[in-house]
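chain below, 230 aa
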Amino acid sequence: MEQLEKATIVVMWKDEMEFIPVQFNPTEYTLTKGAQLAEIAIPGLDTPLIQFVRGQTETLALDLYFDTTDDGMGTNATSVTTLTDQIYQLVKIEPDTHAPPVCSFLWHKKFPGSDVSEKVGNQRRSDFQCVVESVKQRFTLFSPEGVPLRAIVTVSLREYKTLDEQLKQLNLNSPDKTQSHVVQRGDTLSGIAGRHYRMPHRWREVADANRIADPRRLDVGVFLRVPPLL
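prediction:
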């Protein structure tokens, strides 16, 4: 008989990795990912322009079930907290890092996101790297002495990526395509160059491409051409 593959939470403690398999695989989980968009109002247009600001953190929510009644419900009953506390501890501060540990949720290599195309860069994944945002514990059965024996633990995981990981995945290192930018209140040429090139000192390329004589005066709502760097 084929052995059931267990979902596992891998914990990256400061000095070691810990593997915490769930007792029962979840029946479902929910992934939520969004993008923050800004509306740029330009007088005379029917609809504001939409400009991408940044991606929002992806979250994963799931319920985990725990039960220790197989060990009995009498005086020598095993508390279900021997299992649930392994999850609960993941929202506690690790003294050496002054923060909860980074984790990874694993179940199968065909985790959602494993088949995204190369058009979005190197963003395929086989797990969900995260920090535990919240743990809600509901204890539903107790021994006559009050020992908790059954629990439902609702876990919310928040995506975790370092800056280097994101730059490698998105391949943003080579601004080799012409882009456009709609001037907003407070924009400067160095700020625009910093956003598109990550090099504020290359603002002259933007100024030259748009024949801007006075770099200190930018008209709100104007489309600027952001040329590729040579």
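The chain is about 15% helix and 35% strand. The chain has two domains: 8-170, 179-226.
thats it, cya
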